[in-house]
Design a protein that fits this description.
It is a single chain. The protein has 378 residues and is α/β, with parallel strands linked by helices. The protein is 49% helix and 10% strand. The protein is built from 16 helices and seven strands. The strands form two sheets. Strands 5-4-3-6-7 form a five-stranded mixed sheet, sandwiched between helices. A hairpin with a 2-residue loop joins strand 4 and strand 5. The protein is elongated.
């Protein structure tokens, strides 16, 4: 059909279009004028034009038709010939390049990737050569993966969780998943974290223009033996954060016990937690040492027995991440500056931020149940 570039066709245009189908020689000139006007104001469509063009050629001839439409002789001829044979001017569907792998072979390739997602396309290509006797490019195998909705992505980094710990995590989540927010408001969470002077141990990204990669501001400074860092202990609850304690030297059960004696009760008092609070710590060997367990037993009204390899169900981990982001905003060059900025940024953390994290405990535990004790998105 002709597609109108402006206003829709009027009834007059519709009447004039019918003249194209007339066989009377008296209307040839009028039909030619109408067809010419359509050519100037419409977009040519060979499929819808074919019936009118076929009848118009019978009246006016191919020469006049191609002059009016400004089409080549072969174009007019091909449209008429196709319409005579098939009663349609639509192009035949191309078969395309023949497929290399059959459906069965593609399913076999995808099945191997489903079993082992870390399989490389090059290795799959070699298997195809030995199994199907077909020598193909690795890109062909990648196209098979994409066809079946398998896309190459960088795997997410998550702590390893053994089968035993998965069962323990699942049991822990099922025990506490139905606890209300009021229950978690009376829990104090404790943990340790390390902060580096020269930034995170992980990957970093900078944005720079071409040929400026070696500018000082675009470099990531490194020092021999990894540089200095600061180990920090802290606690938090729904009402806010507790004391911040710096740890020098090696962290062991005796150092950990001294930290608890200096900070735990004072933090509980400052945070306004009920005296029937519950103590929540990770299942680290230093935390579960006999002398530490004995002290906690006599000085904490309640203790929540957590499972190993479970940082995703300890909300204080999110506080550490938030603090790391704030520290990265400062240009720290030595340990004294690092401690100074840690204290300043720690004091700025609001109670509303902590309350939001505590409120998400139920969601985190539901996620653990959903993942059957495995890694979660938290």
């Amino acid at each position: 059909m002709f597609l109108n570039c402006g206003k829709p066709l009027s009834s007059t245009d519709d009447t004039n279009t019918k003249c194209l189908h007339g066989e009377s020689s008296n209307n040839r000139k009028k039909s030619a004028v109408i067809l010419s006007r359509f050519r100037d104001t419409m977009t040519f469509d060979r499929i819808a034009l074919a019936p009118s063009l076929f009848r118009f050629v019978e009246d006016c001839g191919r020469l006049q038709t191609r002059q009016i439409l400004k089409l080549s002789k072969s174009t007019v001829f091909n449209i008429i010939r196709t319409f005579k044979k098939t009663n349609s001017a639509e192009n035949k569907q191309r078969s395309g390049w023949p497929r290399i792998f059959s459906e069965l072979e593609e399913r076999c390739i995808v099945r191997q990737t489903h079993i082992n997602p870390k399989t490389r396309a090059v290795k799959s290509t070699l298997k195809c050569k030995s199994r199907f006797r077909k020598s193909v490019n690795p890109e062909t195998v990648r196209n098979v993966f994409k066809k079946h909705k398998y896309f190459g992505r960088v795997p997410r980094r998550k702590p390893y969780i053994s089968k035993t710990n998965r069962k323990a995590r699942l049991a822990f989540a099922k025990t506490y998943v139905k606890q209300s927010t009021e229950f978690w408001k009376n829990v104090i969470f404790v943990d340790e974290s390390k902060y580096n002077i020269f930034g995170s141990d992980g990957k970093q990204k900078v944005w720079h223009t071409p040929n400026t990669a070696l500018h000082i501001k675009n470099l990531r400074p490194t020092v021999k033996y990894g540089g200095a860092n600061q180990l920090v202990w802290d606690c938090m609850a729904s009402s806010g954060v507790g004391n911040l304690d710096f740890i020098d030297g090696t962290m062991n059960k005796y150092v950990y016990l001294d930290i608890l004696k200096r900070n735990l009760k004072q933090s509980v008092s400052n945070l306004g937690i009920s005296r029937h609070f519950k103590f929540y710590q990770e299942n680290d060997p230093k935390h579960t040492a006999d002398i530490c367990k004995l002290w906690v037993l006599y000085h904490c009204p309640g203790v929540i027995k957590t499972t190993a390899q479970s940082p995703d169900i300890n909300p204080i981990e999110h506080v550490w991440d938030y603090l790391q982001q704030k520290i990265n905003e400062h240009n720290v060059s030595n340990k004294q500056e690092l401690r100074k900025h840690l204290i300043e940024e720690w004091a700025k953390i609001r109670g509303s931020f902590c309350a939001k994290l505590i409120k998400s405990m139920s969601s985190q535990l539901r996620e653990v149940v959903k993942c059957k004790g495995g890694p979660t998105r938290y």
